[in-house]
Design brief:
Shape: rod-shaped
Distance between the termini: 11 Å
Order of helices and strands: EEEHEEHHEHHHHHH
Oligomer: single chain
Strand content: 5-15%
């Protein structure tokens, strides 16, 4: 299966008055580039997320966002610190024994005493299993979107390979005809200049010309590269770098074909090949 490097996934879950939300975005990149935007109270989750993503992705610029939000209207239980309250009561009683006219502590002062109230907020250790489960689900979703996009890219590449095979097939039969056209033109020119054509010279010039414009090797290599592209698409996996290399090779052969050509139709075929190659290259840039 061919995978694109473009994808998006999101997962969220409500848990005891809070909502955990994770989002994955992926675009094309030469290497695997992981970036994280994580709320400060969840920063401890980054190493595990990094390991999870690196284990299943090979290329792409991936941004992971993780945040925790308190739900509006969610009840929060506030529990007084009984041990601290007992110590304060004992201390207050001792102080009042020494200073009977002193004012006792008010309820307001007790509630605002540092450490007096503890809420029921979840600790990271309680959130971590949920984060791991959401991250795995989001990664599955991301890979699914990248796979679907990859299937579309592979289909577009195969369409252009069919077109390039047609162009290659159209170019090969034209070479003998071009040589014969050159031979006929050379014969006419010699007859105009010398009245009679030197058959031996015509044959020699025709052979040299045929050797100069022979593109059989280029067409053979073009076909071989197209075969390899189809093989890579069939095998799947991380194929982007290999396909990008083959695009360079295809472009080199198309340039050679254009430089050897002396006929407008062959030049046109070479130019159309370059157009198809560039279109394939644009698709390959998004393949993992």
């Amino acid at each position: 299966m061919i995978y694109s490097m473009t994808g998006f996934a999101t997962q969220s879950q409500e848990l005891d008055g809070v909502s955990i939300h994770i989002e994955l975005r992926s675009v094309n990149s030469r290497y695997l580039d992981l970036g994280f935007r994580i709320a400060d109270d969840l920063r401890a989750a980054e190493p595990g997320l990094r390991e999870l993503l690196a284990a299943r992705l090979t290329r792409g610029k991936v941004e992971c966002r993780l945040n925790l939000q308190t739900l509006v209207g969610a009840p929060r239980a506030l529990t007084p610190n009984a041990a601290l309250l007992a110590r304060l009561a004992a201390t207050e009683a001792a102080m009042l024994g020494q200073f009977p006219d002193a004012r006792p502590l008010s309820v307001y002062e007790l509630l605002h005493w540092p450490g007096m109230l503890a809420d029921d907020s979840l600790e990271f250790e309680q959130l971590q299993p949920v984060i791991n489960r959401l991250a795995s689900a989001a990664l599955d979703e991301l890979l699914a979107t990248r796979r679907r996009e990859g299937e579309k890219l592979a289909a577009m590449i195969r369409e252009r390979i069919v077109k390039m095979r047609e162009l290659t097939a159209a170019a090969a039969p034209r070479i003998p005809a071009i040589v014969e056209e050159y031979r006929a033109r050379l014969t006419r020119r010699l007859q105009e200049v010398l009245t009679t054509a030197d058959e031996e010279r015509i044959v020699q010039e025709s052979v040299l010309y045929a050797a100069r414009i022979d593109v059989a090797e280029e067409l053979s290599r073009l076909s071989a590269h197209l075969d390899e592209i189809e093989r890579i698409l069939a095998v799947g996996g991380a194929a982007g770098k290999r396909l990008d290399f083959l695009m360079q090779e295809l472009n080199r052969e198309a340039n050679t074909l254009a430089s050897k050509s002396s006929a407008s139709d062959i030049t046109g075929i070479a130019m159309e090949m370059k157009v198809q190659i560039e279109q394939i290259r644009e698709q390959v840039q998004n393949i993992e």
